[in-house]
């Protein structure tokens, strides 16, 4: 029965044809305790991780070589080769300084790109670890949850609604278990499962006693023994379809690539023009002269195109996403940041997201009257709660004992006292509230052994109720069905009502009282749950499932308080200020939802809510009108969430949608940003969502949107900087060729003198591109970030206004550099008396310093550079490094020879600094004009309303 599959891993062949006992024995496992930790570790070492085959991890040298796969780098390498050939053919020449310098610069650029690429890869890998799936198993007799890749053959896999199945398993138990297998078999409906052995071979879709890796538990619970992992699973059999997932290309990445191509074409045209003009207008005496001109053209093209832009972009996105993860917002893909920053609507659940999920039963309502309950609540699963205050009640009626006890039995939570007297709640917070209230109720205590739960009809979002089959050992093993659920749903299943110790028919008056109780509790912003029961007759021993949930005896309703999180109201205010609309979509009662929405500022008093029943009456056109104004939806089903999201998207909104249950997955996938709950969310929703909220806190969503906006803002900053700086280099050479006679860049024979050499252009590209751009990518966010309207999906990152600024700043840089050269050279507009080498060194230095001034100015399109001038210490570090390197290239003799520079005097440095600062002053004046124009536009807009 055991075999080795094609990947070398052990598995159980045709496990669905074998009985459970045989399989467990073959795997040396145990149906109660599972494997031991030692067994699991041995099998993990032997069989490897439970993972599908993926592309092998690329070695570091691969990323290093990738830096040279660029057409512009090819041009440089060809130029180096030509230089070396010329040097070899011409006797008596010195060392080929140009070739050596260009080679070193190419290597330095490649090293910088390699470092950026590997750091980005490490950041993405770290994020992948945060979003890995987990599975519940039994090892050493203890239930625990582990990463799914650590599952081994023979593990006992515990299955619950919302879980993603981590490996192929033969079912041992199945309780109303239904599995979504569309990802494997294409079956759109959930498939019912059982533990019955099959006798004949059947297709994969008909193996009812198996669950398979990659599928999802839609309903119920179960227990199975793992029979195959990794590539030995059924999903592994089609792994060749899943091996390679192409990386998603975002509109931002597409736009950046398009800009790169456009710039490459434009600059190649300009470089060709420069080369042809210089060759035609300059006296060429040797092959070396031709080579120098060609090197200039090639270097100009390489320096003008920010070829490292994609690597810088990926690195900045990765840093931003890691920062979000530290703030409890885990983004699964870098590409989602762009969409998150553009969100215009947040559709959010209420419980646990807007509220604290600290459930406490505050009131009970039965036919005999009302009881106000007070006392200490408790915290969510895994947290410690101090039960140091007694709970006080009003008059205790027998129904209250039944109500709270029934609610406790019809649930899966547990209450355990620790050695230090504190309590730990395990399970659903609402179910835990019944346990706490029952324990503090002034009523005769029940023993743990009295009631035995033998079966369960699980809760689903469609049914809105659940039931437990219980045996009462103190009353002749009487069998009881205890149900708990939404009051309006549960009342439909009831025909009688508990009044004191008596059971009477559920008359219209008693039903009306029960409904009034629910409305009153909901009006006080309390969540309501009702409990009912009935004894089961002996004749019903063979019955099971939902057919038993009829003729119930209604006991009463509890009102549960779940107060809003204190940080949510300010977050909603900030979201509204940012132009983001907040919509609450919940399964709670409309009055509860409305009250919480009013308290948090989502709606104004009296706005009301639409229910799922209301939505069912609306066609698509009517729904489109409804979503324009309505911001609270109550008693909705998952299908309603999908309709709401689709209607909002049809109106051009970028929608962020929260969800935690299995049936929320379609809405999360449909939304632009699906946000899965990290604490209460199921594995299915975590896989469907693009973002995981580690703390289930709405305020974290707003914080993540702010961070997303900040990342996009910073991307615009370094794009503005890179493009305008590179434009300055191109225009410097281009204008020098066009206006050589005006500024005195001509030799004695009338030939053109170039203001910059090829090596100098490459040096500028090396020291001013990468470090300042990355530093701007992590710039502190602007204070007005959340006062702007959301970015529309059709808006371009680089719009017409930014292009105008890029050209203007580039032109100022070029004019400042050329004017400095003219200032120092004899002739031209300004008569100087310095040598060509000194003049060229000064122009070269001005261009470097101008770009560093530009780094300060590019941090904002309209705000003064003096605002938050020293906020970014990384940017100042990059500026200091570039300045030190430029001083070295001017004053260190080995670099003087390599870059054909000479030392500058203190007064010449002062001139260079003053000329370079023209970029700063021009940018400040330009921004002042923009602010004045915007202020005038705002005043004009206000006057229109008077």
Automatic annotation (TrEMBL):
Residue span, Cation-transporting P-type ATPase N-terminal domain: 14-88
PROSITE patterns assigned: ATPASE_E1_E2 (PS00154)
UniProt-listed Pfam families: Cation_ATPase, Cation_ATPase_C, Cation_ATPase_N, E1-E2_ATPase
Superkingdom field: Bacteria
Keywords assigned: ATP-binding, Membrane, Nucleotide-binding, Translocase, Transmembrane, Transmembrane helix
TM spans (from-to): 72-90, 96-115, 262-281, 293-319, 726-746, 752-779, 800-821, 841-858, 870-892, 904-922
Record-level GO cellular component terms: plasma membrane
GO BP: intracellular potassium ion homeostasis; intracellular sodium ion homeostasis; potassium ion import across plasma membrane; proton transmembrane transport; sodium ion export across plasma membrane
Chief location: membrane
Membrane topology: Multi-pass membrane protein
Cellular compartment(s): Membrane
Record GO terms (molecular function): ATP binding; ATP hydrolysis activity; P-type sodium:potassium-exchanging transporter activity
Family the UniProt entry places it in: Belongs to the cation transport ATPase (P-type) (TC 3.A.3) family. Type IIA subfamily.
Protein name in UniProt: Haloacid dehalogenase
Organism this protein belongs to: Pseudomonas silesiensis
């Amino acid at each position: 029965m055991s075999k080795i599959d094609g990947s070398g891993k052990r598995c159980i062949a045709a496990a669905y044809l074998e009985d459970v006992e045989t399989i467990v024995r073959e795997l040396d496992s145990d149906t109660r305790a599972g494997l031991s930790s030692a067994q699991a570790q041995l099998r993990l070492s032997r069989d490897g991780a439970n993972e599908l085959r993926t592309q092998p991890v690329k070695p570091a040298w691969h990323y290093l070589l990738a830096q040279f796969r660029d057409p512009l780098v090819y041009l440089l390498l060809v130029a180096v080769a030509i230089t070396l050939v010329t040097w070899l053919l011409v006797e008596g020449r010195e060392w080929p300084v140009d070739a050596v310098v260009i080679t070193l610069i190419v290597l330095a650029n490649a090293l910088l790109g390699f470092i950026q690429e590997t750091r980005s890869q490490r950041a993405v890998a770290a994020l992948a670890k945060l979003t890995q799936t987990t599975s519940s198993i039994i090892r050493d007799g203890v239930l625990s949850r582990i990463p799914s890749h650590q599952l081994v053959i023979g593990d006992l896999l515990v299955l619950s609604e919302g879980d993603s199945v981590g490996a192929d398993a033969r079912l041992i138990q199945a309780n109303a278990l239904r599995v979504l297998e569309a990802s494997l078999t294409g079956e759109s409906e959930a498939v019912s499962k059982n533990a019955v052995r099959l006798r004949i071979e059947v297709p994969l879709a008909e193996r009812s006693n198996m669950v398979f890796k990659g599928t999802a538990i839609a309903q119920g619970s179960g227990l199975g023994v793992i029979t195959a992992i990794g590539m030995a699973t059924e999903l592994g059999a089609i792994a060749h379809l899943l091996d390679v997932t192409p990386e998603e290309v975002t509109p931002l990445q597409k736009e950046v690539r398009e800009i790169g191509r456009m710039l490459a074409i434009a600059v190649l045209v300009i470089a060709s023009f420069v080369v042809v003009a210089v060759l035609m207008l300059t006296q060429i005496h040797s092959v070396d002269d031709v080579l120098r001109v060609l090197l200039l053209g090639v270097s100009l093209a390489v320096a003008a195109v920010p070829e490292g832009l994609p690597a810088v972009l990926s690195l900045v996105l990765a840093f931003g996403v890691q920062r979000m993860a530290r703030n409890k917002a885990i983004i699964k893909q870098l590409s989602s940041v762009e969409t998150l920053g553009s969100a215009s609507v947040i559709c959010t659940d209420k419980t646990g997201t807007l509220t604290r999920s600290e459930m406490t039963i505050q009131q009970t309502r039965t036919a005999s009257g009302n009881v106000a309950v007070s006392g200490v609540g408790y915290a969510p699963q895994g947290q410690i709660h101090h039960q140091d205050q007694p709970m006080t009640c009003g008059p205790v009626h027998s129904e209250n004992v039944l109500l709270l006890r029934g609610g406790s039995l019809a649930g899966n939570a547990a209450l355990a006292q620790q050695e230090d007297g504190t309590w730990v709640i395990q399970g659903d917070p609402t179910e835990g509230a019944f346990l706490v209230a029952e324990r503090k109720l002034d009523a005769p205590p029940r023993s743990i052994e009295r009631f035995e739960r033998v079966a369960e009809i699980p809760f689903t979002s469609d049914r809105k109720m659940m039931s437990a089959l219980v045996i009462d050992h103190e009353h002749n093993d009487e069998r009881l069905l205890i149900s708990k659920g939404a009051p309006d749903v549960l009342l439909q299943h009831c025909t009688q009502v508990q009044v004191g110790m008596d059971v009477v028919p559920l008359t219209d008056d008693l039903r009306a009282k029960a409904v009034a109780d629910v409305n009153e509790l909901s009006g006080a912003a309390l969540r309501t749950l009702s409990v009912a029961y009935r004894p089961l007759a002996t004749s019903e021993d063979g019955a099971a499932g939902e057919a038993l949930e009829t003729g119930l005896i209604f006991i009463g309703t509890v009102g549960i308080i779940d107060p809003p999180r204190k940080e949510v109201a300010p977050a909603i205010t900030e979201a509204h200020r940012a132009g983001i609309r907040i919509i609450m979509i919940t399964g709670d009662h409309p009055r509860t939802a409305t009250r919480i929405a009013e308290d948090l500022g989502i709606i104004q008093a009296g706005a009301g809510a639409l229910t799922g029943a209301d939505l069912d009456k609306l066609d698509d056109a009517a729904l489109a009108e409804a979503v324009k104004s309505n911001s609270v939806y109550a008693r909705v089903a998952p299908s309603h969430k999908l309709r709401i999201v689709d209607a909002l998207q049809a109106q051009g909104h970028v929608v962020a949608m929260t969800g935690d249950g299995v049936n929320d997955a379609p809405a999360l996938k449909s939304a632009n940003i699906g946000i899965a709950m990290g604490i209460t969310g199921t594995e299915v929703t975590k896989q469907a969502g693009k973002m995981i909220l580690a703390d289930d806190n709405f305020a974290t969503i707003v914080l993540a949107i702010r961070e997303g906006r900040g990342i996009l803002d910073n991307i615009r900053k370094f794009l503005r900087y890179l493009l305008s700086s590179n434009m300055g280099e191109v225009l410097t050479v281009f204008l020098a060729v066009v206006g050589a006679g005006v500024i005195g860049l001509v030799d004695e024979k009338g030939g053109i003198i170039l203001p910059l050499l090829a090596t100098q252009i490459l040096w500028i590209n090396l020291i001013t591109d990468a470090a300042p751009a990355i530093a701007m990518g992590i710039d502190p966010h602007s204070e007005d970030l959340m006062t702007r309207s959301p970015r529309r999906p059709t808006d371009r990152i680089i719009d017409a206004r930014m292009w105008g600024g890029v050209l203007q700043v580039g032109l100022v840089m070029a004019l400042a550099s050329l004017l400095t050269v003219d200032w120092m050279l004899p002739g031209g507009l300004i008569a100087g008396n310095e040598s060509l080498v000194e003049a060229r060194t000064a122009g070269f230095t001005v261009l470097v310093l101008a770009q560093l001034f530009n780094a300060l100015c590019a941090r904002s399109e309209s705000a003064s550079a003096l605002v938050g001038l020293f906020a970014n210490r990384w940017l100042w570090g990059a500026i200091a490094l570039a300045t030190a390197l430029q001083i070295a290239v001017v004053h260190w003799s080995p670099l003087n020879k390599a870059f054909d520079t000479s030392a500058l005097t203190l007064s010449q440095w002062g001139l260079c600094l003053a000329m370079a600062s023209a970029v700063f002053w021009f940018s400040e004046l330009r921004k002042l004009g923009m602010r004045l124009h915007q202020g005038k536009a705002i005043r004009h807009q206000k006057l229109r309303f008077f």
